[in-house]
Amino acid sequence: MHLGSLPYKTKQFFLLLIKLSIVVGAFYFIYKKLIEHEELDFHVFLQFLKENNIFSTKTTLFLLFLTLFNWFLEILKWKILVTTIEKISFKNALEQSLGSLTASLFTPNRIGEYGAKAIYYPSGKRKKIVLLNFLGNMMQMSTTIIFGSIGLYLLNSKYELDINYLKVSRFLVVIIVIALFTAFGLKQNNFKIKGVSIERLIAFFKSISAKTKILGLVLSIVRYLVFSFQFYYLLTIFGVNVSYYNAMIVITSMYVLASVIPSVFIFDVVIKSSVAVYLFTIVGVNDFTTLCIITLMWLLNFVLPSLFGSYYVLNFNLSKDTNL
């Protein structure tokens, strides 16, 4: 929607409608996902949490600490990346990260996050903000793929999974062909993305210092280890007798498999549930416990931050020289 030609007060009115739509939509989808979960009754889920003392002060505080630490690392990474083009405070990075989470909650593969973060900046900087967000996401995805590939290899070596190698080979061939055509396209001088030439994109990424890239990657790795440990901690809380090593093999495999499946983000919990149930069955974890852990991880790391993010969405205001 282009509102640049409208009077400032009219733009503010339309902006209010957009903000309310985002927040109401996010709350509605969260409610639907919790109450109408096909495989997990919400009341049974709550009772199971009570029986396992999830709501005890010690357990609750530790889980919340891991959630806060997880998002602290993500917010810090965003602050560091944005500093390459504009200095912002940690508070600004917090607002942009949580606000964009809420705005992207029900968009395919969190695509709405790109536009939500870009709107905080003048139009002249938005393309760079989109690219920085892409870089940050690729850092996290690279971490997931590296750890997940190791996890899948160890999982297959340890438990001899029933893998259809013919189908896997076909899939890899398709990926390689797509990659080759993409590489060929990128070499064409007239190839552009959103009006930006590949040469300019490469030059922009090269202009970011190695220190910034390394620091961003380190923060992505630490963040990955934090939420993976949180998953393992929940396994122990629910009485699952599995070693940290074996648990991490399955957890890393689960995250990489769930990450490569396109999804609407609000239903990401469904995809992770299906993948997790299959993988954790291998190490003897029952389906119900796995579903409860996946749901709780989703509540802690996405729903809870998005509720705080709704505050920033509702309080977002355009400056008079900012266009939508």
From TrEMBL:
Keywords: Cell membrane, Membrane, Transmembrane, Transmembrane helix. Its main location: membrane. The keyword tRNA processing does not apply. It is found in: Cell membrane. InterPro entries: L-PG_synthase/AglD. The chain crosses the membrane at residues 12-31, 54-73, 130-156, 168-186, 214-235, 247-270, 277-300. It holds the Pfam family LPG_synthase_TM. It comes from the Bacteria. It is a multi-pass membrane protein. This is Lysylphosphatidylglycerol synthase domain-containing protein. It comes from Psychroserpens ponticola. The lineage of its organism: Bacteria, Pseudomonadati, Bacteroidota, Flavobacteriia, Flavobacteriales.
